[in-house]
Amino acid sequence: MLRLLRQYLAPYKRTLILITALLLVQAFGQLYLPYLNASIINNGVLTGDTTYILKIGGVMLLVTAVFTVASIVAVYFSARTAMRFGRDVRRAQFERVQEFALREVNEFTAPSLITRNTNDVQQVQMVVVMSLTTMISAPIVAIGGVIMAIQEDVQLSLLLIVVIPLMIIVIGAIIVRAVPQFAIMQDRIDRINLVLRENLTGIRVIRAFVKNRFERQRFADANADLTSTALKVNRLFAMMMPSLMFILNIATIGVLWFGGHLVDNGSLEIGNLTAFIAYVTQILTSVMMAVMMSVMIPRASASANRIQEVLDTNPHITEPAHPSSQIPTAGVIELRNVDFSYPGAEQPVLHDVSFTCKPGEMTAIVGSTGAGKTTAISLMTRLYDVTGGEVLIDGTNVKDLLFEDLWAAFGMVPQKAFLFAGTIATNLRFGKQDATEVEIWQALRIAQAEDFVRALPAGIDSVVDQGGQNLSGGQRQRIAIARALIRQPLVYVFDDSFSALDFTTDTKLRAALAEHTFLSEQNAPTVIVVAQRVSTVLKADQIVVLDEGRVVGVGDHHSLLESSEIYREIVYSQLTAQEAS
To answer: Domain ABC transmembrane type-1, which positions (predicted)?
Structure first.
């Protein structure tokens, strides 16, 4: 945790110095007041000097006003610094996660990353607030109180040698047992988030298979685990405050007992005894304030470690140290002897895969489920890196290009269409930020989405819920296609993007796409289509057939019907011999 604090509090050094100075003023005021109070009792109350009482009383009021203002200002700057610290840590985590490849995201899991950037940051942020307002002033008051108490009476001060170590022993014993539980608690919160997230996103599947009772039990189990761990921790800390208050009260009784004897024999004045009691109370109160912090520190430490894990994780896929100056301009995609294995997998997903996708041509990738079609697409855009061979764009290895230069060449329509919360217009402008309404409507027209968008009350300004949940699967898919079209990239990638469409819409869309993408033969883009429907790829210029991660056929429809048995099986499973010819 100290590493995290040093790194992200470093920009606020001046503010921290100011807070420390203000807290020193506050501590000085707290320590000076008992001294003034003792002076009033010894020199004013006992002698009956009203003028002296008023004079010193005025000084006490002034001191109180000064350290009260200092306390308020210190708390203000402490809170502001802590909030900025939390902001900086959240931003750093978010930026690091943005650099992660799918491999790192899968290792941490999405629910855990969300927890680390919300709950974990909040835990550390709360400790920063309390540290700046309490942990700085508490030691100052405690040390100053010890010095002032010794000045009042050395004999009575010997009580502190017994009381303070006793309090530290109690605190230490509880914290040692509690620290491991806090790490477990954060893992339990991750589990709660995972179950809740799956329940919300998979609500249709849960209801379709009548698993509501099972999911309720699964959540109840996760909730019970978290509750059990939290109760263990809270039981430990529930013992702390009563124990410390007992020690404080015993110490006060001891001071009164021994101090009373000292006053009785004339070796200690009543005012000094009052001041000593005040100093002892301040010392032990400061220790208890530190205890309150100690309740939070173990959990914050566990959270800080989880945050640091994210920040210290180096992305598996990084930008090149010396990027190529050859920015893609044509869109020729070549997979050359590509092998790929997922982390931890026993068998490679792709074996010696080679094919080329050229501008002005439509390349279709077909194969059975699990053949490696989507994986091949992911390698083109460096969502994963090949474990063997090369992926080239315009003759340049994709590993030698900056991410922005590489990704700018692609217009992706993923297998699962995802829309962001906002409007239809903002979702399309995700593909091109400065797109005009004319361009938006043109993209919607080509994607066969114009009719249903115009039918909406607000048109392109109609609200889209998170993930596009207020739209049908076909509507989401068409808007996702329009988002890629409006980008006008060098390479269009449609990863099984037509499966949610009916045959009529699919036919119209493919005709409109063909007309749109090849309007200019000089600047014709490369079109790559991953499809399950044979009808979608019949007119493709090149069809790549994958089977168990290997290329078993490359050619057009008619040549593959003659030469590839696997392709024939795929075709005849969907079409009649007459339709296929």
So the answer is: 17-299
